[in-house]
Amino acid sequence: MTTGMLSRTAGDTAAEAVFGAPAEVLAEAEFGVLYAQIQQFYAHQMQLFDSHEAERWAGTFTEDAVFDVPTLDEPVRGRAALASNVRRNKAQQARGGERFRHWIGMLDLRPQADGTLRTRCYALVYVTPGQSGSAVHRVCVMEDVLVRSRGKWRTRHRVVTRDDLG
Fold this sequence. Notes:
Layout: H1 3-6, H2 14-19, H3 23-50, H4 54-58, E1 61-68, E2 76-77, H5 79-96, E3 98-111, E4 117-129, E5 135-149, E6 152-162
Parallel strand pairs: 1-6
Antiparallel strand pairs: 1-2, 3-4, 4-5, 5-6
């Protein structure tokens, strides 16, 4: 660090003096770290889902989580029901000879005053039937409320909407 970086003027904050950057730039850097953490969270969560690791996937949700998707008659509530749903999906896909992959993108992340995160992103679902080529199966919007629980981000509430259902 140079002495010029450490010199302060009347309007400088301590962060500006030490790091040579305005506080809002540092806040953006902290947001960038959080954003990367949440992208990693979703990458891990979706890979567990696509691999049918039912209990591990359900563990990325809170105990009382709500999972609301239009392909089910009613929202799934709680980890046990979430894991059961994944096992059902695995059996259905095995019978149909299909493989599904989920891709999450265009993530919008909104930290809330209560410490939760509200997210909204696009979820593309690809299907590979048998040995033929993959195709987009569904285009969805996924909206979550994420909370910190035992040192990890977990989904407390998820609502998925599908473009084809308007």
